[in-house]
Write a structure and sequence with these properties.
The chain is mostly beta strands. The chain is built from two helices and 33 strands.
């Protein structure tokens, strides 16, 4: 009898341990294939709607095609429309946040986080087999959040300080949080830091891959800030360096400490210098600054503002907002970049903004914002992009995309 009880107890403990391990796995590892529709991944898009912000969820099939399966409210309010680009005339337009990483997923795939810029808060979703479940919503620590950085359980939110409602304006800042295993955000005391002047227009905050530093870009002051993190989760002072070209916006990290930063080269508000945008690469030095490798390499496009690396580090892809294209750069072992390809996202009126690459490196998805659509591309071995369709039916306020 004692032996039988011992065996039964061992089996129960094994079952509990197995279940615990499955729950700890990233969503993509535990539920990579859906038997009903052969989905191998998901794509998430933030609508940024001013009345009721939502995240649209798509199943991603093995061929890269997308099937819309859910739309989940964040509980907050997005910014709503931005201004129409100057070459289109007056009126409301796309790209309202001027930022990258308004929507992010944690490294383990368990949680998705979104900014609610008009209601000045952050929403956290648990990633489920059915789509998403809202588990937390917390104030962002400032006004008009536009970008979220994450490393393990450490989260930092970049607040632009501006607002569609003038009396809600303020100074740009970044504020830190801890993310617990239930998806709740806990503010880190005394972690708020002013990032720049009221008119600096900060656009992205990003952790370096090792989590030791934060990088913040400022579009109108043409500055890049680097801050070293303390052991207590608080950021140090920002060390500012000038960008190689005006209007630095997006940050991405390649292999071996490589950093890429886009330079839209605006000559006025939402007016890009024709075919004057560029991309620079850097390495982070021991004295907490950025050492240039490739300085302001021309994209030969207008309004290049977003960037992502392929998982193997061989290519960097940029969204060229004013030209209606996505460009591909090859990346050398030492971090030099060379422009090699471009692909059409639907013409000038597509106004491509945010983009993301799937973890397997097979597909790239970009928001054709003014058309309220996602454009999909298969990434070929040489870095060229083959269109594979996408999905439409979203508002032109969309900003923020995650591909998994």
């Amino acid at each position: 009898m004692i032996k039988l009880i011992s065996v039964s107890l061992q089996r129960s403990m094994f079952a509990v341990l197995t279940l615990s391990l499955l729950l700890a796995l990233p969503w993509s590892s535990a539920f990579a294939v859906d038997d009903d529709n052969n989905a191998v991944g998901r794509v998430y898009v933030l609508t940024n709607d001013a009345d009721a912000n939502t995240v649209v969820v798509f199943d991603r099939a093995a061929d890269g095609s997308l099937t819309r399966i859910a739309e989940v409210e964040t509980g907050g309010r997005g910014s709503g429309p931005g201004e129409l680009p100057a070459n289109f005339g007056g009126g409301p337009g796309p790209n309202p946040l001027d930022s990258q990483d308004a929507l992010i997923m944690t490294e383990n795939g368990r949680f998705l986080m979104a900014v609610n810029s008009r209601s000045n808060d952050i929403s956290v979703f648990a990633v489920t087999r059915q789509g998403l479940e809202l588990v937390d919503r917390t104030p962002s620590g400032g006004n008009f959040p536009v970008s979220i950085a994450h490393h393990n359980d450490l989260i930092y939110v970049l607040n632009e300080g501006e607002s569609p409602d003038e009396f809600f304006g303020g100074v740009p800042n970044m504020t830190g949080f801890r993310l617990d295993n239930t998806g709740k955000l806990r503010p880190i005391p005394n972690s708020t830091r002013v990032t720049g002047s009221p008119d600096s227009a900060p656009s992205q905050i990003a952790f370096t891959p090792d989590g030791d530093m934060l990088i913040v870009t400022e579009m109108t002051t043409n500055l890049i800030g680097v801050s070293r993190m303390g052991a207590d989760g608080r950021a140090g002072s920002l060390v500012k360096i000038p960008a190689n070209n005006p209007t630095p916006l997006a940050v991405a990290f390649g292999h071996h400490g490589l950093v890429a930063i886009t330079e839209g080269n605006d000559i006025g508000h939402r007016i890009g210098f024709p075919d004057g945008a560029s991309l620079s690469t850097y390495r982070i030095t021991d004295d907490d600054t950025l050492e240039p490798i490739s300085r302001a390499v021309p994209v030969n496009k207008t309004g290049t503002c977003w960037v992502r690396f392929s998982p193997n580090g061989r290519f960097a892809f940029t969204g060229d907002t004013g030209s209606g294209t996505v460009s591909t750069f090859s990346v050398s072992r030492t971090g030099e970049i060379t422009l090699i390809h471009e692909a059409d996202t639907g013409g000038l009126i597509s106004v491509p903004i945010d983009l993301d690459v799937t973890p397997d490196g097979q597909f790239l998805y970009v928001l054709a914002s003014f058309q309220g659509a996602v454009r999909g591309f298969h990434i070929e071995h040489d870095g060229s992009l083959t269109p594979i369709g996408g999905a439409a039916g979203m508002p032109f306020t969309i900003q923020g995309i995650v591909a998994r």
